[in-house]
Amino acid sequence: MNPSTLIGMLVGIMLLATVLLFSTEDPALFINLPGLGIVLFGTMAATFISYPLREVLRIFGLLGTVLRNERLYARKDIEELVSLSRLWMAGDLKAVERALDNVANPFLKTGAQLVVDMTPEEDVMDLLQWRIARLRAREHAEAQLFRVMATYAPAFGMVGTLVGLVNLMFLLGDGDMTSIGQQMAIALMTTFYGVLLANLLFKPVAVKLERRTEERVALMNTIMQGISMMNRKRSPALMRETLNSFMAHYQDEINDGRKGKPAALQR
């Protein structure tokens, strides 16, 4: 599991436990199934109306992505690209083809294959840039899905609050304090559930997905620069230093204060 996600989940559970144990004499007061149902089902209903079914069904897969400890093996990709460039400059096409079969990164493999096929550099760069733009747009839409849900959850929390207040108005004349208390609980707890889900689940997932996209795009841009250098038959040693310097600078920007040059980008 992703360490930061695990820490966030544990701290969130500790926060809720603190609220339940130390802010009330009866923790069961914070459990209100009708209010929770209004928020959850209302949010899901609005999401299904807003998005096609195939996109909504990806929510669970995206949650799994956030939980996994994914790594982008930047140094491994750079070394593979340098090795391919060295074989390409030596004119050993068969060795290049064999090496391409072992490349795991499809973006790198496509770019190198186009170079081997003597595709003009402008066409190679256009294709790679299009693939980067497509990935950025797709993953932005995935993160936006959770941001939209983060706006729906508090709104349906307010819907539950209004429902509880309307029912409360009808019960005030009867003077039944038990019923009045139950309706007041629905009125208050739905807002609590909506705000909690929005700020402790939906928004953090959206931010983590956006951060994941930034890292992936940075690596793809690095590879694209290497493909361009390979096409121009630049020195493999120069390629290695250039790409490693690029990734080291990126690491400095996203890991302020950390020393060293890790072998892989990780979330």
Automatic annotation (TrEMBL):
Membrane topology: Multi-pass membrane protein
Entries under PANTHER family matching the protein: CHEMOTAXIS PROTEIN MOTA, MOTILITY PROTEIN A
Protein name as catalogued: Chemotaxis protein MotA
Record's keyword terms, sorted: Cell membrane, Flagellar rotation, Membrane, Transmembrane, Transmembrane helix, Transport
PROSITE patterns assigned: MOTA
GO cellular component: plasma membrane
Primary localisation category: membrane
Start and end residues of each MotA/TolQ/ExbB proton channel domain: 101-221
GO biological process, one term: bacterial-type flagellum-dependent swarming motility
Pfam short name (any one): MotA_ExbB
Key word Transmembrane present: yes
Family affiliation: Belongs to the MotA family.
Cellular compartments annotated: Cell membrane
Transmembrane segments: 7-23, 29-51, 145-172, 184-202
Record organism: Pseudomonas xionganensis
